Amino acid sequence: MTSLVEKPTVLEVSQSSHTKYRPDIDGLRALAVLPVILFHAGLSVFSGGYVGVDVFFVISGYLITSIIVAEKKSGVFKLSSFYSRRAKRILPVLLVVMAATSIAAWFFLPPKEMDYFSQSIISTILFGSNVLFWLQSGYFDTAAELKPLLHTWSLAVEEQYYIFFPLLVMLLWKAGRKVIVPTMALLLVASAAFSVWFVSRDPVGAFYLLPARAWEILIGAMVALLNFRATNRKFGNIASLVGLTLIVIPMFLYGSTTALSELYALPAVVGAALIIQFSMPGTIVYRLLTLRPMLWVGLLSYSAYLWHQPILAFAKIRFSHDLDLSIVVVMVALTFVLSMVTFRFVENPARRAKAQKSYYVMGSAVAGVLVLGCVGYLGSSTEGFPSRANKFYSLEAQNDEANLWYKYTVDSQSSDVYRSASSPKDTILVIGDSYEFNWSIGINENIDHSKYRVISATYLECDVTFNGGRVAAAPKEAKYIKGCENLERVANDDELLKSISKILFVSFRPFEYHSNMFRFELLRYLQERSGARLYLFGNYYQFDSIESGTCMGEMFSTFRGAGACLEKASYPSSKLKDYESTSSGVYPEYTLVDIVDLVCGYEKDKCPSSSEGVPFMLDWNHLSAKFVKSIIMDISKSKRESLDELGLSDLFR
Question: I want to staple 240 with a disulfide (CB 3.0 to 4.6 A). Which of 279, 406, 436, 472 is the partner?
Fold first, then answer.
């Protein structure tokens, strides 16, 4: 430890002889990285620890701008040297961590997650992972904290910024300070304004993308450009203490969703700028930041930042997201042990490499990029090396599931698979959220199509409104246009509605789900115009939340089959009728179809967990189509009396 803090020359800022080493900035790095690690470890007291990333942005903006300006003044700045230093700073440790993470991913990540991970490998080495994670965010996205390379989004933001920033400085340099400073200030204000505007339209995009983040780095750049250092120690003491307060308070007061609000990072960013500007020897903040433990963590901060996310992500996958304090302590300790190793044998030698050794470093980095790029391409092109799942979910079973999806249709009369020679008299409407897809498949596979035509519709990611007796369904994203248009077509087709005799409603936890509140009015609208009987289908077993991981992930991490998922599943915890009181007077009149009761009477050891090799679910809550088909078939054969009581006995073959 001692040797680490006695060698300030290894710092990035000291790579230019024209800048002066500041140990307090190393301490500020420690103040940034520790809360980030503890936040990702799940310690609730650090609920806003993610603001440490915003502090990093300011530090980076300050240091890089200081180097560029100092070298430009001395006439020694070269763009090739700048990018070479960035590569030696960023790539060696990043590639080592990515290689180790890829090996772990082979054993712990099921095909779908491995596919996503493979895409993140490619985007990370291209410094575009922030764009990928933005594009991947959505309804069916894997829980963010379970993505091993999620944290590389911040590296992508910085490197995208540093593609353009040196070029802009070079372009404006001859115009002098009177042009450079106002230009940077204008860009800062423009980025902050864009962030405020964009966050109301796409909060996830505002979190990940450079245009909405550049203002944070530019604040650090402005501190370097203004180059003002206070000499009054008393004033510096007060200003730096204010800065420390602005950083620390959000770490404890912010919640997990605060990061999606307007300029949430402003206090921490201003705080970091104040410390950089006014911390000086003799001030309280300077003394705190230059304590040896802080300097030690600061020197390891880059390696620690890279290691912590994959270590914690795999720990959460292995231990089903439930990390008790002892596991957290071990994982954090492992983070710093690996950080010391990579700092000593990779990061430090690579940054200090001179002349001939630099060619070896860059050559190794290029080779590493090519190898990892090939790994990422193979993983993505094969959709996550699906053969690894044969033990739990064979390729044959996967193909069976896929074949059912090929049969999916919004209107059975338009499908050769389900069309009957006779003309059915009644129509069945299957409607719901994301559950509608697999339920519609399972119902269509079992229904008597000589008697019934099946229409399916989903309101998934539709903004449903009612105006003048008509239904409007505006898609929230482009990929949901088709589904929302179909919902509008069905809901506004009076002739079709008159033919509907039964409405089968399928939804995520229908008595607890507080999203899509318009569903009550939508169901009432459909029931009143069709005169149909409404059936509310209760759900099968599922995990508590998306943070609990996926069933496939559970099978991989426990090396067991779908029975492990059923054991972990906690919903429904008792008969659905216990939940019905919460829906009193909200849903229109309905008949409850308690699936778990019909299948296995809530005796978990008697409840099936798969059908013909297909697990009952693959993610954390959606049943597979094959399994829905299986349980509907079982109910239709073994529970005829119960179906008679429900008025559904004639529905299935």
Answer: 279
